[in-house]
Amino acid sequence: MKAPTLIKTALLFRISQMKESGRKFPQVIAGLAASGGALAAGTFLGWTAPAEIPLVQKHEYGFPISAEDFSWIGSISNVGAAVVCFPIGILMKSVGRKWAMLSMVLPLLIGWMLIVFANNVTMLMAGRFLLGAGGGAFCIAAPTYTAEIAEPSIRGTLGTFCELMITVGILFVYAVEAVGSVRMLSAICGAIPIVFGAIFFFMPESPYYFIEKDRETDAARSLKWLRGHLYNEIEEIEELKAEEAKSRSDKITILQCLQQRATIKALIISLGLMFFQQLSGINAVIFYATTIFDDANTGLEASTATIIIGIIQMVATLLATLIVDRVGRQILLLASDFFMALSTIALAGYFQLKECNETQVENLGWLPVLALCLFIAMFSIRYGPIPWLMVGELFSNNVKAYVSPLAGVFNWLLAFLVTKVFTNLRDALGISGAFWLFSGISLVGTAFVFVVVPETKGISLFEIQRMLSRHIV
Q: Which residue ranges run through the membrane (predicted)?
């Protein structure tokens, strides 16, 4: 065969491959752009740690903020996130995934402006509530968008972008704390939603949304953008139409949903995992990391210590994406929860010794750093993402519209409880008592996973439903 013929054959083969599978790069770009909203959410989650000491102890804003006030400022964002869980689902169906996310730029921007220009506690609380609403919406909308735009071969990878970008957002706040004032830090964070909006504006709408609205031409145009102009989108459009038709025919009410044995058992497992995830104390650690290191007298600058935590969280989350489908969900949850319990036991023991006699811990400044780093790593590797992953695995498609927002509301309200009560627990029990409580809950969570949570690795969604229907939880 002559060289030109070989080249022509190779080109035709390459074109046929592109038609069949599509280009991956545009999908990655769209997934990263959508995850910019998760980056914005990460900044409001991380903001509390570097802000507490300047606002409460140094009165940087010029008006008094008590520890009780700050517990409300830190926790009210979780209420905002819980409140938006159901409305964002309605908004995504009415105006589309893209415009639902773009509309969240406004509450994020107003929230940061209220914090930058705050002259009283009420303005700070209002700003934090709006940040929670905007950021919480992204935690639901962005994974939905990335799942719908991605081909199956890269859907898992794109699905990890949101969680990874949340950790990047937290690390970003820890890193730019050095700029000086809390107002300047907040102003920098306020620029992120604007950048997100400017980039995501040029991304395509989800083709699945267009199929929902019977806009087949727009769906084809979206797929061409995402898969490349050589891609033959007809087969995928037919698949989307069949999936949408099945979704409409299988639609049930929430009362019918709660009468299904598999759904009830899946709900017990999912909400149980959410409970132990939040009651492990993760949000207390993230929101009050600077204070914890300051109390520990580690010898490290508190800002340096929190940056270390942020880096570990980001790296561990990245590592989690590589092992979730190689190691079982249950074994990872067991290991994660057990080592989180050991970490909080170590923290509790350290602070109890410190409360009795500070000289006993003069040479143990490394212990709280090591314990918190282990806690963050174990949480990020599995107990952070797996409960959300299992919400998608345990429920059948026709009930997810009800239970996914319910799981989100439950999770965010628990996060509010832990963040709000941590200061009160610290005052009532001492910081050691608070960590003893978290460690006890984590040990109970380990037992819950061992007894109740099934292994779903390598099992089809259909088989999971059959397993839940016959197993006793």
A: 28-50, 70-92, 99-118, 124-145, 157-176, 182-203, 266-290, 302-324, 331-351, 363-381, 402-422, 434-453
